[in-house]
């Protein structure tokens, strides 16, 4: 792994104020809390975690829509921020969970697809058509859809339009924030397969965000597990499933509906829910929900340490076991 | 779309007719104009002559039919007092009201929308807080209170501006300010919340990711979507504005439609009152109709009848 990575996120934090009535003393919590990882060109990385763990905030930071409180995000070696140039802007595109909310309801399909090209390169209609038409066809739309408005399309169609729109600028990185969770199960597979196909054709890098392990499993080469704003485990897809370390990851994998119906094992089901208050206590963020929590876990925040090449985990239990073994 | 236009037009006409009829019957409950014309001590004979010359001796129902058929034919009758066609009197007084209203409507919309956009873009910053304070004050204090305060300050204390009657544009300054504060406040409040809502939509982020400049994002994708609810309310705002004009015209004794209608009501000048009400209702209704239709024409979802257009 030499050379410049596509994306390098280092020690990024984002805090938001906690609003509490009229109290003037501001208190803060960290939606993203010291996150670091890197992505190579054409790689597909999945981020998984419960609702509210900061996945969308991280995505918005990487897309330059939000400014990090601390830390740095480098894309091709240059810093990502709200006022970055158009050239950099177009290399990072994003698709959203609710495809209808991410298209301007007053624009027809042509307007939606042509605007990025006009803004980025002042393109004339005939030039824009040369780029848009072939893409339109691969996505299964005909020319007369171009004069239709968003409400005339179905959810699956709109999501394909959003993908299409992000592709007209030929980005290097496509962030997909819950790309299929608002769609019917039958259409989910169709969209995921489309994303996979596009990736191999266009050497796109994907950062796919989901709370659904089966979606992440389907599309990612490498998986990052987030809990309350922090990364708790990261590994290749194969390692993460074959050699699961963190108790939280175990619970997420166990929650996949009939992942393997043959072994109906005792499921590690999560109890309770993630609470922001954990950020104010010392020790592991997962302490209150962990069956294996020991004294150390209430005392000290665990570091991310390797258990294998490319496989990192932040768990005292795992780390003490490893130390004993060696 | 055509069906929509037809249905809405018919409904607008029905509204006008209903309000007009209501005013016809209600005004006749309030007193007898003949007594007002002749005074307390009129003889029975002179009373009857005047009553029959004004057709006030006919049964109520017949009076109604006569007036209604006059309305349909475009004959609006004569004022009881001035003995002149009501339309002439109305036109004579239209100037000051129109001058004031048109400036107020244009200026309040422009200023209100500007304030709202600035407040939303500078959300939670000092400017936003200042504008929010202004909107609270502007929305809670009625315009006649402003009028009285302004007269007190600028006419009586500082003697900078005249009050009462017309002449130069300086006569319009205070009525304009007292009429505008409320609408500016409510339009900016509405624009602000509509803009905040729109700017938090994902397609705004998408627009930014396309590389569109921030001001273009705010105007093209933000304001143009936020303006829909604002336009509807603007239509309704005109109704309150004209209502406010009655009061403000009276306070500043501006000889406009407001004072004309108030006098007509006080003196039981039924044809004149009826005419003033008719013109105003017709104007409101058609302004609202136009707003609804343009709204429908602008929004593809309504145009295609996807949303219930009741
Ligand atoms: N602009 C903001 N101001 C204040 N708090 C925010 C803001 N944006 C996000 N948050 C909070 O930060 C936390 C993380 O939010 P985020 O949307 O990143 O979570 P998520 O992992 O994407 O969740 P979900 O799966 O529900 O989409 C949440 O508690 C959310 O309420
Ligand atoms: Mg999210």
The bound ligands are:
adenosine-5'-triphosphate, magnesium ion
* Silhouette of chain A: globular
Q: Could you give the order of strands across the largest sheet of chain A?
A: 6-7-8-3-9-10-12-11
Q: What class do helices, strands and sheet pairing of chain B give?
A: mainly alpha
> How many DSSP-defined strands of chain B?
0
Task: Describe the overall structure.
The complex is a heterodimer of chains A (326) and B (310). Chain A is α/β, with parallel strands linked by helices and 326 residues long. Helix content of chain A is 32%, strand content 22%. Chain A has helices spanning 55-62, 86-91, 109-121, 125-138, 155-167, 185-202, 213-219, 237-242, 247-254, 316-325, and strands at 7-18, 27-39, 44-48, 70-75, 78-79, 92-95, 173-177, 205-210, 222-227, 230-236, 305-308, 311-313. In chain A, the strands form two sheets. Chain A has an eight-stranded mixed beta sheet with strand order 6-7-8-3-9-10-12-11, with helices on both faces. A four-stranded antiparallel beta sheet of chain A has the order 2-1-4-5. In chain A, strand 1 (7-18) and strand 2 form a beta hairpin. Chain A is globular, with a radius of gyration of 21 Å. Chain B has 310 residues and is mainly alpha-helical. Helices cover 78% and strands 0% of the residues of chain B. Chain B is flat, with a radius of gyration of 24 Å. The two termini of chain B are 13 Å apart. The model of chain B has no long low-confidence stretch (mean pLDDT 86). Classes of the chains: A alpha/beta (326), B mainly alpha (310). The A-B interface holds A 60, 63-65, 86, 89-90, 92-94, 96, 98, 101-106, 108, 115-116, 119-120, 149, 151-152, 165, 169 and B 201-203, 205-212, 221, 224-225, 298-301, 304, 306. The structure holds adenosine-5'-triphosphate and magnesium ion (MG). Magnesium ion is lined by residues 55-56, 177 of chain A.
